[in-house]
Design goal:
The protein is built from 3 helices and 4 strands, in the order βαββαβα. It has 103 residues and is an alpha+beta fold.
């Protein structure tokens, strides 16, 4: 089984908490970490700076399409960040735990 980290951001802690709980309750992810960040980005032709919440979602790679859809269905951004990064290596015990607690 292959594993990934999916990253997305939200405008508020409440939005981040909602997404994290949805992903866990649907057993799409084994763990979601939320961190406050400052995002600098270009939008509508200008440079923007916003405080955001970053979600780091640990999951089986095969769950990405469902995770992406869950984020899109429950996100208030016009174009939310949704990126998937492969986990090339990791603790066998940790990766087995991800497999055990997800569908």
């Amino acid at each position: 089984m292959k594993f990934s980290v999916v990253i997305t951001t939200t405008a508020t802690k409440e939005d981040a908490d909602k997404l994290a709980r949805l992903l866990l309750l649907q057993r799409l992810a084994a763990c979601v970490q939320i961190t406050q960040i400052a995002s600098y980005y270009i939008w509508n032709g200008g440079v923007n700076v916003d405080d955001e919440q970053m979600l780091v979602i640990k999951c089986p790679t095969i769950n990405f399409p469902e995770i992406e859809q869950c984020i899109k269905d429950n996100h208030n951004y016009e174009i939310p960040e949704i990126i998937q990064l492969p986990i090339e290596a990791g603790s066998a015990d940790y990766l087995n735990w991800i497999a055990d607690v997800t569908k």
